[in-house]
Structures are given as structure tokens and as C-alpha cells.
Amino acid sequence: MNVGGERSGDLLRLGALEAQVMDVLWDHGPATVREVIEHLPSDPAYTTIATVLTNLDRKRLVTITRQNRSTRYSAKLSRHEHAAGLMEQVLEASRDRAASILQFVDSMPENDLDLLRDYLERRDRGDMP
Q1: Nearest CA-CA partner of 38 in 14, 20, 54, 61
Q2: Burial 46-81 (b: 16+ CB within 10 A, else e)
């Protein structure tokens, strides 16, 4: 899965501040740099967040919309799509994809296994939207 980034290994991995910024965009929708700062637990410098957003753009994780003198940033992927992309990256890095999948499934709690079973049954019946 190559959603963006220059190397597959760097594709979706986020630093701590990048993750906080993405959480703001996922939780609150499109935002300016100042609006992102308002929602962060710390009070980082404007230039710091502007740089983080530039890095997220380089990783192709945000969309930039410019209107007049305002620049808004929005997440290109949903939080769920991002998590699935991370899982795909890990599987791509595995020397034995099947063994990694099976090990992961073996480690899943029963309620997650029930969710997976239900999903696969519905998919096989063609009950998926």
C-alpha cells in the first residue's frame, strides 16, 4: 500500500507531535495552524506546527486548501484508514506475511475474533454495503 511518502517504511509512521496534530484534524476537521494549536495539550510555537503540517503534507497525509489569506489543513485519510495502512506496512515488512497474520489473529481477544468472524460471514453472503 503506497498512499504517499518517498519510501514505504516512512509512509504512515508519525512522530509524537505529528500524531497529536493528526488527532486534532481527525477529531475537529479542517483547521488552520492557529486552530490546531488551540486544540493541542501544549502550547507549541506557530512555526513548529506549521513545520509539522508541512511534513504531514510531504508524507501525503494532509490536504492543503488556500482561500484568500487563510490556509486550512485536513486529513487525507480517516483515522481508521491510517491504522489499516500501518498494519499493511507491518505486513509488507514481514518476511512471512501469512505467519504474521496468523500470529496476530492468535493474539486477538475473543470479542475481536467474533467481530472478524461476523464480518467475514457477511462479506461471503454479500451483505456488505
Answers
A1: 20
A2: eeebbebbebbeebbbbeeeeeeeeebbebbbeeee
Q: Pull the grid cell for residue 34.
A: 492557529
Residue 27 in grid coordinates: 477529531
8 A C-beta contact, residue 12 and residue 61: yes
The pLDDT tens digits for 90-128 are 999 999 999 999 999 999 999 999 999 999 999 999 887
CA dist 62 and 23 (Å) reads 12
Grid cell for residue 5: 511518502
Residues in the chain: 129
Q: By three-state DSSP, how is residue 30 classified?
A: coil
Q: Record the pTM.
A: 0.79
Residue with cell 489499516: 84
CB-count exposure of residue 27 (10 Å: 0-12, 13-18, 19+) = exposed
The one-character DSSP state at 76 is: S
Residue showing cell 489473529: 105
